[in-house]
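Record type: monomer structure entry
Structure origin: computed from sequence
Chain ID: A
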Amino acid sequence: MGCGNALGHQIPPYFIFAGKRMRQELLEGATPGADGSVSETGWSNSEIFQSYLENHFIKYVTGMQDKHILLLYDGHRTHITPDIIDWAVEKKIILYVLPPHTSHVLQPMDVGCFGPFARIYSSEGHTFQRTHSAVINKYNLCSIACKSYNSALPPSNLQSAFRKSGIYPLDRDAIDQSLFSISDAIHRQSQSDENIKVDDIPAIENETTEPVNLMSDSEINADTEPILSNQENENIQIYVAEKLLTKTR
């Protein structure tokens, strides 16, 4: 998992390894602040994501407690639970799940950071294999990935990513609308296939005017669980906002 903000500050990477027990040697060669966990599949899940937020993410945004933090991230089902929402409201973190199939233009990490990361990691991996005459495994991966992560998420890339996605500075004309054509086609197909009943949630009458700090979080490997539908996404955003308003009133 990777995260950075609109000012150009990165949060150290967080690794998820396949296994049943976390071993410190899995983080051999990690850069300062990097951490990780394990799951049986090697993929994220609700428990790991909540632990990431509560024990990793929060350590690097605690200096911003006087302001709300807007956290933008992908809409996988493992990323949304009542416990996560309640915790976020308590910590003045506004969770904003990006619309389905739009991360290629709206997720700053995808727009300007993970492409360079993939290229740098590939190059570093080939260099490691040549110089060490060894394959990359889970015990030497961390040092290579951390080095690549730091190179791919400098302030200039993070700032550019938020700017290109039109998020900060806010620019509704920053994105070529034709980039959404593929997303629209995917969405229409998913709408025709799904049969999900979503409970109605009352509309919001007020909105908060407190300043926010823009963050963007994403996973380098996409979660295997399905993403939220547009209707589910919209209802979740309303629910999060109402919880936040109830807390701040």
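Annotation 1: The two ends are 33 Å apart (CA to CA).
Annotation 2: The chain has one domain: 2-171+207-248.
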